[in-house]
Amino acid sequence: MKILVPVKRAIDYNVKVKVKADESNVDLANVKMSINPFCEIAVEEAIRLKESGTATEIVVVSIGALACVEQIRTALALGADRGIHIQTEAELDSLQIAKLLKTVVDKETPDLVILGKQAIDSDNNQTGQMLAALTNMGQGTFASKVAISDGQVAVTREIDGGLQTVSLTLPAIVTTDLRLNEPRYASLPNIMKAKRKPIETIAADSLDVNLTSNVKLLKVSAPAQRSGGVKVADVAELVAKLKTEAKVIA
Amino acid sequence: MSILIYAEHDNTELKAETAKLVHAASQIGGDIDVLVAGHDCAAVAQAAAAISGVSRVLVADAGCYQYQLAENVSALVVELADGYSHILAAATTTGKNFMPRVAALKDVAQISDIIAVESADTFVRPIYAGNAIATVQSSDAVKVMTVRASAFDAAALGHSAAIEALTQAHDAGLSHFVSAELTVSERPELTAANVIISGGRGMQNGENFALLNGIADKLGAAIGASRAAVDAGFVPNDMQVGQTGKIVAPQLYIAVGISGAIQHLAGMKDSKVIVAINKDEEAPIFQIADYGLVGDLFDILPELEAAL
């Protein structure tokens, strides 16, 4: 079976973001960019399915400016077979991304699409579900376990009350949660090999997709800072303060 | 304008999020309908009808909605969407699961996790794990949004809205419920609790979380955990407070053995009063705690339990 893994180029999770002085957006000049961590988990899961003999081909797709090729190469170094880069300079929302991904799904007809549940920049948590809706597929979001058998995928999902397992008919969409797996590091030989793996470039404009979003970003501001309070000497002082000063316990 | 709110529930109980969403909707303005999609969920509909400001409660009671599978629920909401200017669901794992499907099927954007309403088309939401706050304006005909319930007060109760039964039953046939492992607890739910006591990596193992029980009993508190504690396998994932877990804003939040990683702070920094107990006086958690107590949690916790 063929697995499609969309990956997003996003700010590295170790970088502390700063808001621009004019509050137009966050400042991404000269910051380290990486594969979004949840997407990396998606790549890892696809590789494990290939290693276990379930999957035969892993196609990685990324949407954005030329620099996204770096993240595609990273995924190829980890074990994906080939890449697709949908090139655009436009700022896209999840809906436009999902529509572009649908064109890839229509062409590639994967049996399974694995995506990260959300990107750590926009924190939207939308693309996988939207792609599932547009392709009329079942979805298993926030996956902590994925098991494939007989044309079905059983997805164990991390939900607010605990865990829920659903069964989906393939082809289907899975989005990853943190505990699905621990991604590997790429080995040097694999990084070298990845340079020879094919990446197809498609101009987003050449696809019949409306790339304009109806949501406008008006302002990005720094969050209100919570100032630290006082240190208390012992439990007795803590309890006294909570009772008489903060008045949060009786 | 009129607003459709998707009720958060488990077929027996209406969750606290829904009244908070009604309050958020009242800030947008317009008639407010609440949709209860589930199975054998009459009690939930009754509870929703009691929320002040609700015009109608629409009840879709059918087997295909029992587990609120995204494929089925989104088809229902899309069918009902005409005539509504806004569709709101809580930013819980239920709302996050099906709402983007609704948005895509309506060919509109979704605005995720709003924390404030500026006007009927302008909303505020955290990005970058809460390290930046975005104000966004939507010109879509219908605004599909998930709401961070902890950012809004609850609407009052004591109302009696009309309840209307719906007959639509959408079974997309794309997914099937297999099983659930739900945590059973006598304690309040994290997202509804007035007091939360959370343990981190400093708890050292899962057994030591029992040290929090006595304090939680005395305070009527829910027990939470940091991602480090969950990843280490001390406690199950549904206890996780943080950007990728539950976002909470209780009256009192007690962080025990939690260093204060950004992603944890993103989930609890809107708590009214924060207490930090940690042996490392340089821990970042102290920079945001109202009351910090430096010391060994294994000494402090029994002492605290005795003092309450």
Notes on the protein architecture:
The complex is a heterodimer of chains A (250) and B (308). In chain A, strand 8 and strand 9 form a beta hairpin. In chain A, the strands form two sheets. A nine-stranded mixed sheet of chain A has the order 9-8-7-10-6-1-4-5-11, sandwiched between helices. Chain A has a two-stranded antiparallel sheet with strand order 2-3. In chain A, 27% of the residues lie in helices and 31% in strands. In chain A, helix 2 crosses helix 5. Chain A has 250 residues and is α/β, with parallel strands linked by helices. In chain B, 25% of the residues lie in helices and 28% in strands. The radius of gyration of chain B is 20 Å and the shape is globular. Chain B is an alpha/beta fold and 308 residues long. In chain B, the strands form three sheets. Chain B has a seven-stranded parallel sheet with strand order 5-9-4-1-2-3-10, sandwiched between helices. A five-stranded parallel sheet of chain B has the order 13-12-14-15-16. In chain B, strand 12, helix 5 and strand 13 form a beta-alpha-beta unit. Chain B is built from eight helices and 16 strands. Classes of the chains: A alpha/beta (250), B alpha/beta (308). At the A-B interface, helix 3, helix 4, strand 7, strand 8 and strand 9 of A face helix 3, helix 4, strand 5, strand 7 and strand 8 of B.
Structure described in brief:
Chain A is of the alpha/beta class. Chain A contains 6 helices and 13 strands.
Helices and strands, with pairings:
The complex is a heterodimer of chains A (250) and B (308).
Chain A: E1 2-6, E2 9-11, E3 33-35, H1 37-51, E4 57-64, H2 68-78, E5 82-87, H3 94-108, E6 112-116, H4 127-134, E7 138-149, E8 152-159, E9 162-169, E10 172-176, H5 188-194, E11 199-203, E12 215-221, E13 230-232, H6 235-245
Parallel strand pairs in A: 1-4, 1-6, 4-5, 5-11, 6-10, 7-10
Antiparallel strand pairs in A: 2-3, 7-8, 8-9
Helix pairs in contact in A: 2-5, 3-4
Chain B: E1 2-6, H1 17-28, E2 31-38, H2 42-49, E3 56-61, H3 70-80, E4 86-90, H4 93-105, E5 110-114, E6 116-117, E7 122-127, E8 132-138, E9 143-147, E10 162-166, E11 175-182, E12 195-199, H5 211-219, E13 222-225, H6 227-231, E14 252-256, H7 262-268, E15 273-278, E16 291-294, H8 297-307
Parallel strand pairs in B: 1-2, 1-4, 2-3, 3-10, 4-9, 5-9, 12-13, 12-14, 14-15, 15-16
Antiparallel strand pairs in B: 6-7, 7-8
Helix pairs in contact in B: 3-4, 5-8
